[in-house]
Specification:
Structural class: alpha/beta
Largest sheet: 7 strands, mixed
Strand order of the largest sheet: 5-6-4-3-7-8-9
Shape: globular
Order of helices and strands: HEEHHEHEEEEHEHE
Radius of gyration: 16 Å
Number of strands: 9
Strand content: 25-35%
Length: 174
């Protein structure tokens, strides 16, 4: 039986020299691989108490929405600024070369809701940290963070210290 790592394609020097890009399209292009990823991520958080799943566009949607469906939970969209039609709350964060902003509808969940944040990958932790701040701005309680891939050498786990982080696969020094 193949492992999740077996389904992930590594592309050297993409998008620039020195980067080892972990490509998830090879998981979602394979029915068995995609099912394994979703089942594994759901199993990792089965002991968590949460009310709603939130995922950032676009790859957080790919994993978060089927997890929400399987767990019978609502799914909340976190999108790039200007992409949601209703009243939103936003959070800016820094990228390698500049900054960006993400938003969520103000009525995504009720204050006090326990939110599981789902994404494909955590690297430096900037996007994850911004998602946490966004959830908390709306009065949500971050129940945990669940990602398919963690790149530990980039320090994302340290950036979100104090929050539970579950990752299905780690690529350390590979």
């Amino acid at each position: 039986m193949k492992s999740i790592k077996d389904y992930i394609r590594t592309i050297p020097d993409f998008p620039k020299k020195g980067i080892m890009f972990r490509d998830i399209t090879t998981i979602i292009n394979d029915g068995d691989g995609f099912r394994l990823a979703i089942d594994t991520m759901c199993d990792m958080v089965q002991d968590l108490d949460y009310d709603v799943i939130a995922g950032a566009e676009s790859r957080g949607f790919i994993f978060g929405a089927p997890m929400a469906y399987r767990q019978h939970k609502p799914f909340v969209l976190i999108r790039k600024k200007g992409k949601l039609p209703g009243k939103t709350v936003s959070q800016s964060y820094d990228l390698e070369y500049g900054s960006t902003e993400i938003e969520m509808h103000t009525d995504s969940f009720k204050p006090g809701a326990k939110v599981l944040i789902v994404d494909d990958l955590i690297a430096t932790g900037g996007t994850t940290e911004a998602m946490i701040k966004l959830v908390e701005k709306l009065g949500g309680i971050v129940a945990g963070v669940c990602v398919l891939i963690e790149l530990p050498e980039l320090g994302g786990r340290a950036k979100i210290k104090g929050y539970r982080l579950d990752s299905a696969v780690t690529f350390e020094g590979e």
